[in-house]
Amino acid sequence: MELSSYLLFTFSALGALNAILLALWLFCRSDGNFARKFLAGMLIALGFRIFKSVLFYFDPDLSRVWLQVGLSACYLIGPFLYSYIMSVQHQSPEQWRGWRMHLSIHLALVLIVGIVWPYQTYPDLWGGLIYKVVNIVWLIYLVLASQRMYGVVRAYLGNRTWTSADEQIALATLLGNWLIWTAFFTASYTSYIMGALSFSLVLVLTLLCFLVSRQPKQTLGQGTAASALSADEAADIEARLQALEKDTDFFLMPTISLTVVAKKLGLPSATVSRFLNKHRQTSFNDFINAHRIGRACDMLHRQPAQNIETIAEACGYNSLSTFYTAFKKHKGMTPAAFRETGPS
Question: Domain named HTH araC/xylS-type: which ranges (predicted)?
Answer without folding.
Answer: 238-341
